[in-house]
Write a structure and sequence with these properties.
- By secondary structure, the chain is of the alpha/beta class.
- The protein has a single domain (5-135), classed as Rossmann fold (3-Layer(aba) Sandwich), CATH 3.40.50.
- The protein is 56% helix and 14% strand.
- A five-stranded parallel beta sheet has the order 3-2-1-4-5.
- Helix 3 (42-54) packs antiparallel against helix 4 (58-69).
- The chain is globular, with a radius of gyration of 15 Å.
- The termini are far apart.
- 28% of the residues are buried.
Length: 138
């Protein structure tokens, strides 16, 4: 049986796709051609929704968000990812590192669902989370 390969789309690539950034489209096309299953998290939907509501074009941006994520699996924050988030934050603090809560939540949701790849331009935070492989683009 073939193991599914997941790539979790962070907010940066979702925004770039919505804005029509060619490098984001090229990366998505490459991932799909390599048989990655594209997913995102409820935390990323929250971040996109928040940004859309702050925008002067909120209705248009919310419609774009819904269209963008309707074909993606959306993973939720659950007990397993909550326990993993606490561990990741604690280990980061022991090293003197600061990682944003939302990025820890996103990474822990991905890891709890068997996904080690996060697609983002925010390499700084995600590459410091054990078990996460960052796929980035310009």
């Amino acid at each position: 049986m073939e193991t599914l390969r997941y790539a979790c789309l962070d907010t940066t690539i979702l925004v770039d796709l919505e804005r029509g950034r060619q490098s984001a489209y090229d990366l998505i096309e490459s991932l799909v051609s390599k048989s990655y299953r594209l997913v995102t998290t409820a935390v990323n939907v929250f971040e996109m929704s928040y940004g859309a509501h702050k925008s002067t074009k909120s209705k248009k941006n919310l419609e774009g968000l819904i269209a963008l994520v309707e074909d993606l699996a959306i993973w939720d924050f659950d007990v397993e990812s909550g326990l993993l988030s606490g561990k990741i934050l604690h280990e980061a603090e022991l090293k003197g590192e600061t990682i944003g809560f939302r990025d820890i939540f996103i990474a822990s949701i991905a890891l709890a669902n068997g996904c080690q790849r996060v697609v983002t331009r925010n390499k700084k935070d995600f590459e410091r989370i054990p078990g996460i492989h960052v796929i980035t683009y310009e």
